[in-house]
Amino acid sequence: MAGVLFLCAAAVLLLAAGGAGPPPPPPEEAARMARFVLHNCDWGALATLSAQEGLRGHPFANIFSLSDGPPEPFSGSGVPYLYLTDMEISVKDLEINSNASLTVSLAQTPYCKKHGYDPQNPLCAHIIFCGSIVKVKDSEAGLAKKALFSRHPEMENWPKDHNWFFAKFNITNIWVLDYFGGLKIVTPEEYYSVKP
């Protein structure tokens, strides 16, 4: 019975939001906003320090598909999972220096367009994570696979000879820009202690 009530409540929220999913949390809940934005994004811009000839030591940003769990509302682990191959240019950078930053933005969802927010408008929330990319351990691979393949089913058919592997963004710092007045700092402990 509780499950049916939850599904009904979720359906009402979806209808109230114009079919675009639940609305974001209020700006004073920065940790929840960070979880919400990550969970509602299917990709992000990952910045590495380039190890490539001619670019060595320079910032290098690249787009990657990601997921913190299946797309159901109010769920997700908060862990950004990625599906990578050593053949990818940014992964070659990460082999030299695993430190990176990851930016995700509600601009990729219907929310900002529906409200007429430019992607650079602070009300079109975006989150900047800093940390490192690490391969997931076998015990976590099932979670990563379910998270990614539920949102990106095409991944299952990517060429096997590319030696794909599951990785995660190990978060050490979080900045939230979701309102006027500048960035808000959220600790990983605050971030993981709330639901999106």
Automatic annotation (TrEMBL):
Signal peptide: 1-20
Gene3D superfamilies tied to this protein: Electron Transport, Fmn-binding Protein, Chain A
Keywords: Glycoprotein, Secreted, Signal
Superkingdom of the organism of origin: Eukaryota
Protein name: Protein CREG1
Any Pfam family: CREG_beta-barrel
The UniProt record lists the keyword Glycoprotein: yes
Listed GO CC annotations: cytoplasm; endomembrane system; extracellular space
Annotated family: Belongs to the CREG family.
Keyword Secreted attributed: yes
Location of this chain's protein in the cell: Secreted
Lineage: Eukaryota, Metazoa, Chordata, Craniata, Vertebrata
CREG-like beta-barrel domain: residues covered: 25-193
